[in-house]
Specification:
Two copies of one chain form a homodimer. By secondary structure, chain A is an alpha/beta fold. At the A-B interface, helix 1, helix 13 and helix 14 of A face helix 1, helix 13 and helix 14 of B.
Chain lengths: 379, 379
């Protein structure tokens, strides 16, 4: 158990509506929020060294329990000193529960009350993930923030089945809470319930009932970024977030477009993660303060401009669009690295700028100006 | 034309035999030799940013005239400020002539006295490379060291045909010399002649005849790394190098195994280049002070040791073999970056250490110890 103060959310600024800037502490450092967390699925944020990553100043990075449990194996990582030492990252790390990948990536599976039997996407071997096993893997990895194992129902499950799934997620949460984590680790509970606000509220009530007996260190909203219609998602999110306890971090899982980040921050979300910035980067699609651009487009072939004139990342400080266009066309590895560096700098920078605006009491103007800058034409 | 002193080779130390430490000056900095030059074919040393590359402290890096002339095009690079600005590299750059790639990579071609007609390996389009066009591309790229265009005969051409090829290379050299390069650029002549020492000597005499009228800034030995038997190559090299002028840099093209570098340095070679360190890195084969290791091997799966305990590169300072094994197995981009960073650090470091040993008059012991350290068993 972390000390009760470790994950206490200190609200530093509250803005019009629900947006908030804050901070909480972990054994690997203080986390300043709002914060976008880059995803390092297999023990690396794809294409970036920890040194390059640290220039972006992410407050937290993610590791994936499903991937790392299968390869190289969580026990090996533990023997090598934990995930921080293994991948050379000194800052806070959050690990997911492995649930989402088991339900989306792995092969044939059987779900029982005890847990999930699945086949590895690597070699087809059979594995078992339960609440206890998920906690064990995350304890071995030694992450700062541990996510409870939830059942991840498909986007539009019928209501009655969704209710059964949520009830099981609550029982699994209780088992996760009972598992002895390392002292420095904090456990976050995950709220499910699709786009049904009433189901989400009922699930939250169950979570808060458990929380009253044995506090969680944070609360996450899951399943709101997997194929739901955007408006339904936003409406549910807006209502739900204000009912999450204000004294601990709130994490919206799998969300990472600039538009969604800004909306989430406005609702009072503190933490976000998404593979979008790095995945888009590998396809040559770059996020900028003026909107999205595709570096493959011929119009960038001779451009001596940086990707984003408002960006101070290494890529934008050093290279022209023409060079990045060339690297991508030539299939050079460096294209992926430089594009990822920029997209993560932009995304992490957007949450950092939002925080600064909140602290300076000019968040509404910041959000308005940021949106006004984005154009649908390629910048 | 560079000022006559720019490329003058200052011998700083001469060792037992012919090995030498020295320096010469270019517009982008002083070059300390012996030096291994990393290859940046398409305007990037594969997988490394200029910042990562600068940590390795290469004295010179290479760019490829064939590749860059086709894509993005040398005129575009010129408009964007030259290759240094384009790729963000502030140190000296050497460009090859494009000849080797035209003769090895490109499609159907016709060779005439005027030049070579070839098909692009990218899109099959038809292009023409002549001495003048090679010089023009290299002038547009703005490299510090320009290589003369030579015909690159296949490994075991019959003697009479080889003589015809060499005669043409001499005529092409004269045309290269007549071309007006930028003031800061130095032109290196290339000696050919297979493993026939007498042909190489005859060709060298022709080069030196031209040199007497219009000096070259350096001399290269070509065609000694393309499939020749090692012993024949070494014998020819040993004889030939001592006949190259001592007052200008000597460059052995396409050579880059640790063993060959050490042998070359012993003969009095100053500059080397090879794709081997980066290509091997991308296949998980790592060069170390104890010999070669294959990071894919299961024996490294749980190793908490660095790749090379004697190496101070970022990879060896930061990561275990177990982590690099994991990255490679998982197909992560970062594997290529970290492996390349190490292999280039090792190779550039080997030439730097040789230089230091030469300056401290302990080169023979250095060479002996270095060889004694290499084992054939995987370290």
């Amino acid at each position: 158990m972390p000390s009760s103060q470790a994950f206490h959310f200190h609200t530093e600024s509250l803005s019009v509506g629900s947006a908030r800037a804050g901070r909480f502490h972990t054994a690997h450092g203080t986390v300043l929020t709002p914060a976008f967390m880059p995803v390092g699925t297999q023990g690396t944020v794809k294409g970036l060294t920890p040194l390059q990553l640290s220039e972006i100043q992410p407050q937290v990075i993610l590791g994936n329990t499903y991937h790392l449990g299968l390869r190289p194996g969580d026990e090996l990582v533990a023997r090598l000193g934990g995930l921080h030492a293994f991948m050379g990252w000194k800052g806070p790390i959050l690990t997911d529960s492995g649930g989402f990948q088991v339900f989306s990536l792995s092969g044939l599976r059987k779900i029982t009350e005890e847990g999930v039997t699945f086949q590895s996407h690597i070699d087809g071997s059979t594995h078992f993930l339960s609440p206890e096993r998920s906690m064990e893997i995350q304890r071995n990895l030694g992450s700062d923030i541990v996510m409870a194992l939830d059942e991840c129902p498909p986007g539009r499950l019928e209501r009655s089945k969704l209710e059964l799934s949520m009830a099981r997620t609550t029982r699994w949460l209780e088992r996760c809470r009972a598992f002895p984590l390392n002292e420095h680790q904090g456990l976050f509970a995950i709220n499910q319930g699709g786009t049904h606000l009433d189901l989400r509220q009922r699930h939250l009530a169950e979570i808060l009932d458990l929380d009253g007996r044995h506090p969680f260190q944070g609360f996450a909203v899951g399943g709101l970024s997997v194929g739901e219609p955007k408006e339904a998602m936003n409406a549910t999110l807006a209502e739900l977030v204000r009912e999450l306890p204000a004294d601990r971090p709130r994490y919206l899982m799998g969300v990472g477009t600039p538009e969604d980040l800004l909306f989430g921050i406005e609702q009072g979300v503190d933490l976000f993660d998404c593979v979008l910035p790095t995945r888009e980067a590998r396809h040559g699609r770059l996020l900028t303060s003026r909107g999205r651009l595709n570096i493959k487009n011929a119009r960038h072939r001779e451009s001596s401009a940086p990707v984003d004139p408002d960006c101070a990342c290494y890529t934008c400080r050093t290279f022209t669009r023409a060079y990045l266009h060339h690297l991508f066309k030539a299939g050079e590895l460096l294209a992926f690295t430089l594009n990822s560096l920029h997209n993560l700098s932009y995304t992490v920078g957007l949450t950092r700028a939002a925080r600064q605006a909140l602290l300076e009491d000019r968040f509404a103007a910041f959000a308005r100006d940021t949106r006004a800058h984005w154009t649908t034409e390629e910048p």
